[in-house]
Amino acid sequence: MSAFVIETLIKILILVAVFSFLGGFATYIERKILAFFQRRLGPSYVGPYGLFQLLADGIKLFTKEDIIPQNANKLIFTLAPIIAMMSAFVSMAPIPFFGNFTIFGYTVHPIISDINIGLLFFLAAGSVGIYAPLLGGLASGSKYSLIGSARAAIQLLSFEVVSTMTILAPLMVVGSLSMVEINNYQSDGILSWLVFKQPLAFMLFLIASYAELNRTPFDLLEHEAEIVAGYATEYSGLKWGMFFLAEYAHLFAFCFVISIIFFGGYNPIWFIPGGIAIILKVCFFVFLAMWVRGTFPHIRPDQLMRMCWKIMMPLALLNILLTSIVILL
Hints:
With about 325 residues, the protein is mainly alpha-helical. It has helices at about 5-35, 55-65, 75-90, 120-125, 130-140, 145-175, 180-185, 195, 200-210, 225, 235-260, 275-295, 300-329, and strands at about 100-105, 105-110. The protein has a two-stranded antiparallel ribbon.
């Protein structure tokens, strides 16, 4: 087996292990942040500062009875959370998490696959995740799950179109779909960051990302106030945990992509090394997503669709047109 294959397998194992842990740890951090916003304590009894609550939740998910409804399609019901996990982790393959570094004379490339269509691959692999809530809801044999899966199809398809259209303008400026080249384009300092050249694209992509990630105020796929728990109503134990672990893994992936496309990626900032810089950027965007959840109320499905097709889509097309004119001139 070649050194390249061994290195790639090691990268995959590290990526799955690290982001699985981060996905679980993010649930603890989010509960603490929301508790701070709402003047509550959050997890505080299990271990120091409630840190062992994460371990307790993990044990509960692994040992809780895994129930499959009698009227469910058992094969599809089981495959749905697996598709969610696979979509989340496969989409991370073209993301350059850090710059290259050397260990014992061996140069490590912190990216699984540096393909020239990396961003397109990320969006395409991530969009496969739509089948997870859709199939899970349809296979459950429950009217609540069916409503949640119908909302999933409408919401995710709509905002995938918007996010793809939105990202076209920055790609026109850079002239490449490779995330490494997008990062290198912004290597001349903060003023070269694409957020200053494409502020509208950044705002639209950020909002579309929240909708694709099922984050508040767009968490209509499993809106407990209306449809119990949406597409995941009939899921329990590890299968339920896989759905939401995939959701948090997607959150970290989108935060990395936003940092790379619009905020200089892993390029150093003044005295801050590039590796630390991108970690700080990702932490900020993860915190921002949690801040938004603790601040904004839910919106209705019809309001969400109106915003998508009547506001965000025309703005994305207008931004593409203006960018084309500027490039031509």
